[in-house]
Amino acid sequence: MSIFELYLKLGYQHIADLKGYDHILFILTLCGIYLLTQWRNVLILVTAFTIGHSITLALATLNIVHVSTAWVEFLIPLTIFITALGNIFHKGVTFSKSLHLFKYSLALFFGLIHGLGFSNYLRELLGMEDNIVMPLFAFNVGLELGQILILSIILMVAQLFISVFSTPRREWNLVISGASLGVSLILMLERFP
Fold it and tell me: Which residues, at least 6 apart from 73, have a Cβ–Cβ distance to it below 8 Å?
């Protein structure tokens, strides 16, 4: 197995690991108000998030950025909480161009925070490598592929509930966002530094 394949697999496994459920919960919350027909918008949203965490992964791995792990562990559920609140207050079915731009910018910013959560794990792995560019890139591609898998499942389940079981879209949003809000609040209280 090549170095690229190794880090690609590690990135994918890291995001798909249920022990890191807070990251999966963020993706669920981020995409909770979308339908399968809006997959392009959601893909851009998740990619903006990936770009954000790729930046801080690189900066933290290169020891350019140092943030207290305790604060990062608190800020991650805070990003979920804020995203869930935004979903709850979103009443429309359609999105304006400016709202999409705002959501993409917010996802990019929140990605910066989540990237810091991965940085210690990746720093340990990359400490043995001579050149970190390719392994870092492969790890991020693996993360993105894992997120796309999670995103696909979320969108298919949402489509199933809304189209087949006739769950009103607003109620679906409130259930997903309300659950995310509750879990993130508990995590924030547990992790407050």
Answer: 117, 191, 193
* Cα–Cα distance, 30 to 51 (Å, whole number): 15
Given 3-state DSSP classes, what are the helix, strand and coil percentages for the chain, each rounded to the nearest 5? 85, 0, 15
Residue 16: predicted pLDDT: 85
Task: Say how far apart CA 132 and CA 135 lie, in whole Å.
Answer: 5
Residue showing tokens 């990359």: 126
Q: Which two tokens stand for residue 48?
A: 């903006």
Angle between helices 3-16 and 97-126 (to 10 degrees): 120
Which of 77, 114, 31, 62 lies closest to 192, judged by CA? Answer: 77
Written as one letter, the residue type at 21 is Y
CB neighbours of 133 closer than 8 A, spacing ≥ 6?
A: none
Per-residue model confidence (pLDDT) at position 101: 84
Q: Which two tokens stand for residue 171?
A: 């109620």
Residue with tokens 């690609």: 8
The tokens 């197995």 sit on which residue? 1
Residue with tokens 């993130």: 184
Report d(CA 139, CA 176) in Å as an integer: 29
Distance CA 73, CA 92 (A): 32
pLDDT computed for residue 17 by the predictor? 85
Q: What is each CA distance from 157 to 151, 162, 164, 176, in whole angstroms?
A: 10, 9, 10, 11
**List of the chain residues with pLDDT < 70:** 92-95, 128
